[in-house]
Each structure stands twice: as C-alpha cells, then as structure tokens.
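Input record (one chain):
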Amino acid sequence: MHFKIKAYFNFFCSSTNQHGVHSPFVYNLVSKCFYNKKQTPAYATIKSILKKSKTPTTITYKVAKLLNRTLSYFESKRVLVLANSADSISQILSTNNEILIDTTLSPNSNEYDMIYLDIDYFESLSDLTSLHSKTHNDSIVIINSIHNSRTSSIIWEKIKKDPYITVTIDTFFLGFVFIRKEQAKEDFIIRT
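The corresponding structure, as predicted from the sequence alone:
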C-alpha cells in the first residue's frame, strides 16, 4: 500500500491535462474521450455489471466507463481480453458496442483493434512481442494496474521502452499503448 501511495504522488506531480499535450492525436483522445463527461445509457449497465461480478475486478466504475468510451472512440470491432476478470471486462466493453471479443490468444487469431490485459499477464518482455503480430498500426493496447506494485511499475517501464511502441499514455490505473508508425516516440502522463 505504501508503494501505491508514493507512486500516485509521483504520478500526480508529473502528470498533466490536455493543455500540456502537444500531439494532436493524444490531445484529441484526451479532450474528446478521456474527459468526455456526457452520460450514456451504457453507464447504468456497467455499474450493474461491476456489482454482479462473481470474480473481483481490478477496475473501478470510473475506469470501466473510460474503457467503454475508448472502445467507442476508436470504433474498435475486434477485441482481445486477457484478464483475470475477462467475463466482466468483456461485458463492460460490449455494452452498447458491436464487437467480437476473444479471451484467449491463439496463433491462428487475426489482428485486433484493441487488446486489454492485466499487467500480471507479462512475465517477461517476450510476452509483449507475442502481441506484436496481433496488432496493426491503429491498434490500441490497454494495460490494467500499471502502478499496483513495484513489479508492475518495472514492467510498465519495459513496455514503454519497446522499440515497436511509439506512444504510451499513463493514467495511473491504465496504460495506453499505441503502435502508430507515423508518430514520433512519446510518453504521456495524463490525469483523468
């Protein structure tokens, strides 16, 4: 718990909002998706899913709403969910979104528009390499619990250094990873 408090303090001191972002891609994402306060009918369903979940989820209601908005913002159609609470996450993502969801990574699967996974999925950086072939230029990878422990933070730092990845956004609870080849390599720390 002490580590998480210190990590949040460091995050808060180094984070910014959309006005500190000079990338048009990230600025639009932050201002139109992250900070979108418009209520949607999906939010009541999401709250119900979190309450009824049989397995404990590692996400809050606020994070669940952000996940659902992100999927809509990018108009993702094919999603891979690798998480301990894959059923709940899949339900949250599919609320008011027409998508195909896989919960296992198979060698025969196609590319995904979005991949959501728990940070503890990574035992080594080579696990990230196995995801490269499952993404395309406009794919988004969302990683949960990036600051839950010292190990999680170390893994997040390794992910950010991967040469295949061009843009990362740290929102403390979630890490957003992009492979956009047309963009310069940048790391952002954004308050949501």
